[in-house]
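Lab notes, practical 5.
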Amino acid sequence: MKRKEKALALLLSAVCAVQGVGVLPVQAEVSAAVSLEEGLTGYWNFDGGDPMANLAPEASLTASLSGSAVSVQPSEDEGFGNVLRFGERQGESAKMTVASGLNSGGGDFSVSLWVNNSPAQNGSVKTVVLQQTGNGRTLLYRQNGQYVTYISAADVAMGSSTGSDVWEHLVLVKTGEPSAYEVTLYVNGEEESTKDLSSGAVNAVTDLLIGAHKNAGDTGQFVGDVDELRLYNRALSQEEVQALYAEHEDVVLEQQIQGIRDELSALIQRAEELCEQGEEDPAVPERDALTAAIDSAKEVLESTDASAVTAALDALKNALDEYMDVSLTLTVDPQDVTREIDDGIFGINHRYAFNGYGSFDPETMQIKEEFSQLYTQAGFGSLRYPGGTISNLFNWKDTIGPKEERVAQIHGFYNNSGQHGIEPNFGLDEAAEFTREHDSELVYVYALARGDADDAADLIEYLNAEVGSNPNGGTAWAEVRAANGHEAPYNVRYFEIGNEMNQGGADGTTAQTYWIDDVPGGALTGYINGGTASFSGQYVVAKDDWNQTASYSDGTADQTFYLRYARVERDEKAEDYASFTAVNKGSVKIYAGGTQWTEVPDLETAGADAQVYSVDYKTGAVHFGDGTHGAIPQSGQQITADYSVDRDGFVQISQAMRSTMDQINEYNSGNGLAEKEIHIYSSFETEGFVNQMHESGNDDLYDGLTIHPYSGTPAGGSSTEESRKTFYYDAMLKGDAKAADVENYVTLMQKYDQTKVPVISECGIFRSTDTMVRSQTHALYIARAIMEYVRLGSPYIQKHCLVDWYSEGADSLGPTQQAVIQAVSTGGSTADGTGEFRFFSTPSASVFEMLNGSFGDQVISSSLNYEQQLDSGVDQYSVMTSKDAEGNIYAAIVNLNLEGENKMNIRIEGQNLTGRTMEVQSLSGDSFYAENTLDHPDNVKIDRSEAEIGGTDAVVTLAPHSFTVVKIHAAQDEGGSGTEEPDPEIPTDPDPEKPGGEDSDVEDPGAGDPAGPGKPSGAEGSQNAGSSADAGKDTDVPVTGEGRGLAMFAILCIFSGMGAVYLGYRRVKTDKIKNE
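Output from the prediction step:
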C-alpha cells in the first residue's frame, strides 16, 4: 500500500475513534506480560535537571554531546518536552556519543528514537542517524527520502522516510547470529522491511554516535531534532514497537491532518489560478466541475472530519486532472528564434580502446556491419574521440599509418590490475573516416597529459590542412595523411584539451591530473600554464605499458625503460629539433632496487660490472647495459627515477592550435578555399579555471568549459515496483540539479564573455549498475538533459557512451549499462575486443534517432499555459520546439507521468493548423523500466503515426513515461516563412470528425472553440516549456502504520482509490519566460 494511503487510512480510523465510531484503536494494547523496560540499557528523553542522564533501570551507559551545533532545547511541538537539536554544522561535526553503547555483531539489539528531519538538511546527501566508532559501521542513514543501513558493509535500503519537518518514530532491530542475521526497520509503528544478511556486522563493542559519522568528512551531519532515544540488548517485537510509537502517536496524527489541510489549501489555490486563466475561453463542462469542486473543498477546509477533508481533496484532484486534460496547451512562437543548432548537436562519446569495445574488426580494419547499421539508425550527429579518461594519454602519431607499425596506447587509469597497453587498431584515421562516412562530426579530445604545443599544432595540420600546405614547416602532415589514404582534410573544428583534468586521486588508478599537480602552484596552474614538473622515486614504464608491473627488471640484457611524463618526441624535421629535450638534462637519477646508478653518455665505454645507464633526451628512454658494457639490473628489482620536465599547459597548446588554424585559413583564402572554424574547450571543470583565465587576460584562448554533469547514483533500483519508481523520480531530480550546476557555470563564464558556452561531451545516469540504466528511464533522462543543454547553449551534447559490454557490472571507467549500444560477446574477448560480438540498441539510442531524424535547425520559443508537477517535485513535462527552412514546426515532449495517457494542445501563434499534416513519433515501452535485449531488441521501439489536423490547434496524446516528437508540416503556400494569417472565423463545430483513425495519436481539439479551453490571456500565466527551475514542491502526507480492525478496514477500502501521484499546478510569471 502507498505510504500516503496508509497514512490516510490510519488517520480516518483515529478520527472515527475520537468521534465515537466503533473502530479498533490504531495502537495495540501492550500485553501485561510485556515490559518496555526489559533489556533497556539506555534511555534519554533530555528532560529534567540533567538532560543527559540515562533513565534506564540499569543506568550503566553514559552519554555526552560534542560540537557547537548540537544542544538540548525545548521542542517546538506539543507532546515533546526537551529535544536534542542538531543545527547545521559549524566547524567540527556535532554528535551525541553513547560510550560503549553497542556491539552490532554480537547479540540482538534494538534502537528506538523519534526524529524530525529539518528541511534545511540536504536530502540528496547521506546524513547519519546511527553510527558506530572504531571498526563499526553506519547502522542507519537517510538519503533521498530513504533509510539505508550499512551494517553488513554494503548499502541496504530499509524503507522510506515520512518527510521533513515532521516527527517520525524509528526502531532498528537486529536479531540472529553474525553469520546469519536479520535487520528490521519500523517507521511509525509499522514494519518497513526486514532484510536477511549474512556478514559484515562488526563483533566488537563500540561507542554509538547519534547524528554524525565517525569520520567527520565522510558524510553529512544530521540536521533536525531527536528525542526519546532507547537502547535495548534484545530484539523488540512489533507489538512492543507499536507501544513505543503510541506514546507520541497523537503528534503524528495531528501532523497528518494538518498536512492534508495544507495540501488541500494549496490545491485550491492552484485550481483557482487555472480557472482564472481559462476565463476568456468558452465554458466547458470540465471547468464547471472544477469550480464546483473548489467550492466544496473550501467548505471543509477547516473541518476536523478527516474523511470529509480527504474526500474533498480526492474530488478536487480528479476535477483538476480532467480540466487539465482538455486545457493543457503548448503555444509555439515560430518568429522567436532562440538559437540555431547544426547537425552535429545530438552526439555520442566513443572510445578507441579494445577495438572500439568490439565494434571494430582488426582483421578487415572496418567497423562491423551490424554495429554500423545501429549507428546509422541512431543518426548520431557527432562522435567524441578517442574518448574520455581513456584519451588522456593517447599519442595520436602512434595510431596512424600501417597497423603493424602502431604502438600500443596507455589507458588513462594505467595502473589498475591487469591494465596494460591497448592496441590502437581503431586509430585516428579509422575514426575520422567512420564519422565522415556516417555524416557525423568528429570531436577530438587532445591529450594534454601526453602531448605539448608543438604536437598539438601537428595534429591540427594533420586533420585540417590541405595537401600542398605546410603551416609550421617540418613534416608536411597533410601529405602524411594523404599517404595514409586520406587526401581530403577532415575539417575538425571542436577540440577539448584533456578530459576531466580537475579530478584528483591516485595517479594511475583514479586521478586524471597526471603531471599537472607536480608543478609549482598545483594542478590548476599546471593545467593552465604548464611549468616544470618534478618527480622523485617515480617508477619507470615501458613505451607501451605504464602498469607498475612493467617497471621491474627481468634480468635480460639491453633493457629499455621510459620516464613516465617525458614529452612526446618532437618532429625530427622541425627547425628546433636539435634543441628539443623530452626531459631536463641533469635532472635524471635512476635507481635499481633502491640503489642509485650512474648516468653515462655512452654504455659502450662502461665495464661489465658498472652500475650505469644512459638517457635518450629526445625520447625520455633509459637504457641499461648488456653485462659486457654496463651491468644488468638484477631480475625483480624495480627501476625508479627522479627527474624534471618542462611541460606546456592549456594556454600554450591553445595558442599553437589557433596559430596553425590561422595559417591554414590564410592558405585556403589564397587558394579560393573556404576558411575553417576552430573551437577549443577546457576540461578543467572549476570556477578557478574561469576566474584565472580572465584574471590573466586569456579569455580569448578558450571558447567554453567542458562539463560532464553525471547524475550520481539514484536511490532505489530494480528490485521492486516501488524501488523502481524511487530510482525513476530520483534520477530526474538529480538531472535537474545537474542542469542547475551547468547554468551556474554559464553565468560565471558569461560574466566575463557572453560568447562562452558549456560543452556537454559526457552525460547520463552514473554510477549505478542497475538494469534501470539500460531502460526507458534512461532514455527519458537523456531527452530531458538534451533539452536543458540546448537551452543553455552547448554546441554539441553527447551521451556517454556509444558502446560497452553487456554485463551486470562495471570497469574502471564506469558501469557498462550506460552505453546506448550493448555489445554481447558470442565468443569475443572483452579483454581486447577481438572476436565475435552481437549488438543491440537501448531505448536511449531511439532518443537520438528521433531528434537526429526529425527536428529543425532553429530552436524557437514555446510555453505551456501551466506547469504540472509529480509528487516527487519533478516537472511532468519538458518541451523543446524548433522549425526548419521549409517552415515545418517540431515539438519534442517528455511526459514523466507513469499512470495513464495525457493530452496536449499545440497552438502555433498566427497559424490555423486545420488540414495540416502532423507526424508523431512516440517512445514509451510497456513500462518505464522496460529494456531491450539481444533476443528482443524491439521491446521499446518508436511508434509512428500520421494524420490530418482537424482544428485550429493540434492535439497530441502522450503515452505515459514517453518521449514524443511531433512534426507539423508547413502549409503548402507557406514555404519557409513560418507564419500564416489565421482564418477570419474560427470554426465551432462541437463534434468535428477525428482524424487519424482509432489508433492515431492525433486528436481533434474537442467541442466548442477549437482554440481550446485554457487559452492563456496574454503572456502572463505561461511557463517556458521544458524549464525545470523554480518548481514548487509539495510534501506528501506522512505515514503511520496500517490500522487494524474491521471498521478501519472498511474505511480503508472506501478511500484506497486515492491517487499515488500528486499533481502540482502553478502559474509562472512572464519575466521568467523572458529571462530564459
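Observations recorded by the TA: The chain has four domains: 1-34+857-1076, 38-236, 344-530+650-853, 535-647. The chain has a mean pLDDT of 88.
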